[in-house]
């Protein structure tokens, strides 16, 4: 069943592992998909959706175990970066998307990186707060600053929630109720199993992907992101890095698109124009 509010359609797509809640502005414009981060939800992109709708077909979804989507029926299979990517691809296939530009934030960026080889219909990718790391715990650690413990913690205390929200969205960013509700709602196994899979020897070599993929890749980070190792990200040999540089937004944290959409959105729009 589809409901429509303010010109935006809301519906559910049943996939192998979960029922996925989708936001879809419709229209004939270039499809643009937004993929949220760990313990978040699609509503975090409402500043981008409202600005892009009408010119683009804007899509956003809640990952399995997040937001208005259901928890996964097979959590070990679904709650990994490749598992999430396969679910996203299944949604896109079922709604008939033949070409798409993806913006992935944090975990969503890692899912987008997985899609570089899994989904040829993705014609461009922008990531934010997402170090493309090689396989193994030691290599993953190179891409991040110390202190990622909460990212893989199944059960959050009230204090954990406060710390996670502050670190993830920015101390000075608005912490709207839906943000906190999304953290509380998230299936704790989605954090635990995703993080375990991320550190395992069976994980995808995302560093190799960005060094070899021919799909245009844009990287936009907040310069004060508390999670990521900037020296590591700056030092990789990207094959198709947009504008041949990483965009760093001064004074912003892990979610610059939320903290300062007036600075972020023009960069996203410039990237999207390359595909029209």
From TrEMBL:
Signal peptide: none annotated. Residues 32-265 form the AB hydrolase-1 domain. One of its GO terms (cellular component) is membrane. Keywords: Hydrolase. GO terms for molecular function: hydrolase activity. Pfam families: Abhydrolase_6. It comes from the Bacteria. This is Epoxide hydrolase. It comes from Xenorhabdus thuongxuanensis.
